[in-house]
Amino acid sequence: MKASEEDLGWLYPGQSPVESARRWAEMGPELVVVTRGGDGSVALTPGGAEAIVVDAVRSLGLVDTVGAGDSYMAALVAAIDDAAAIGPERRGRLDEETLRSVLRYASAAAAITCSRAGANPPTRTEVARLL
């Protein structure tokens, strides 16, 4: 599951977005991610693993945020798949180091998208060059 701080603030006014996400993680999903715009993201697992990426990615200059969330989510799924952590037989493979790597990759994709006009997601090559 992925939600932005703004989403969680709207759903649970007055509560910490990360605490709200922690409660979600305890309900069964393998991964809950809270995006925080330029402040990076937080990932939580039901087993208690937690990763925080604060340095979202070097600033590329903000042009447009349209498509950033979609780019983030697509890159998140791609990075989790690259880590061979998708599927019921692979539950529990998301340790903190892997989570940080996955978050960095997704943040890079979103940052590139924000540096362009319109919903224009990056290629894998563009993300790899930024990292």
Kindly list the characteristics that best describe this protein:
alpha+beta; 131 residues; single chain; 4 strands
Written account of the structure:
- It is a single chain.
- With 131 residues, the chain is α+β, with helices and mostly antiparallel strands.
- It contains five helices and four strands.
- The protein has a four-stranded mixed β-sheet with strand order 1-2-3-4.
- A hairpin with a 5-residue loop joins β2 and β3.
- α3 packs antiparallel against α4 and α4 packs across α5.
- The longest helix is centred in the last third of the chain and has 19 residues.
- It is globular and about 40 Å long.
- It starts with a strand and ends with a helix.
- 31% of the residues are buried.
Q: What is the topology?
A:
Layout: E1 2-4, H1 5-11, H2 17-26, E2 32-35, E3 41-44, E4 50-53, H3 68-82, H4 96-114, H5 124-130
Helix pairs in contact: 1-2, 3-4, 4-5
Query: How far apart are the first and last residues' alpha carbons, in Å?
Result: 24 Å
Q: Note the main sheet.
A: 4 strands, mixed
Low-confidence stretches: none
> Please, what is the average pLDDT?
89
Number of strands: 4
SSE sequence, one letter per element: EHHEEEHHH
Kindly estimate the percentage of residues that lie in beta strands according to DSSP: 5-15%
Helical fraction:
40-55%
Structural class: alpha+beta
Dominant shape: globular
Main β-sheet, spatial strand arrangement: 1-2-3-4
Give the count of helical stretches: 5
Query: How large is the radius of gyration?
Result: 14 Å
